[in-house]
Write a structure and sequence with these properties.
Layout lengths: L1 H4 L12 H26 L1 H28 L5 H4 L4 H15 L2 H20 L10 H23 L6 H12 L1
Helix pairs in contact: 2-3, 2-7, 3-5, 3-7, 5-6, 5-7, 6-7, 6-8
């Protein structure tokens, strides 16, 4: 169990290795399930609420546990661990959108969460493979970011326009 949460690397990540492909398949299965079930989620509020809050909890627990892991191992620094990179911001915006269901936050989440998180899943910058906490945190966190963006845009009647696109990317640049 110590190796799962250690700060050293004894099993380096292998891009497109068995564990990476398995995580990509899990992501694809979850995405396919969301896309195929979104009409039912619109109708059945209880099911939607369960999925919504599960994704919210996954995002928050993932971010909090990562910060805690870094602090416990005396690795935490503002430069490295504040969630100011694109997926970190997307995670926080997605969590806020899941809680508030505000249409503007849903649009922002859609643009900054779905494709960037997918790209991170396909090309992860990860030092550890599947026998380490950071492997699981990375993949589940990025899956939840992307799934939240897809869920929110499919279930809520939000219209994406060119004006929305320009606004969101302008906000992101700022």
């Amino acid at each position: 169990m110590n190796q799962w949460f250690s700060s050293y690397m004894d099993q380096p990540f292998s891009m497109f290795g068995v564990s990476h492909i398995a995580m990509l398949m899990m992501y694809s299965a979850g995405l396919a399930l969301l896309i195929s079930a979104y009409k039912q989620l619109r109708k059945q509020q209880t099911s939607y609420q369960i999925v919504r809050w599960m994704l919210f909890v996954l995002l928050i627990v993932s971010e909090f546990s990562y910060q805690t892991w870094a602090a416990v191992h005396d690795l935490w620094s503002m430069k490295e661990y504040l969630p100011l990179h694109l997926c970190g911001i997307a995670s926080l915006v997605a969590a806020a959108a899941l809680v508030t269901q505000h249409h503007y936050l849903i649009k922002v989440t859609y643009f900054i969460a779905v494709i960037p998180a997918l790209m991170a899943l396909v090309t992860p910058d990860l030092p550890h493979d599947y026998l380490h906490y950071r492997f699981w945190k990375f993949f589940f966190h990025h899956m939840a970011i992307s799934w939240a963006g897809v869920l929110l845009i499919l279930v809520h009647p939000v219209t994406i326009t060119w004006k929305t696109t320009v606004k969101v990317f302008g906000l992101l640049v700022l």
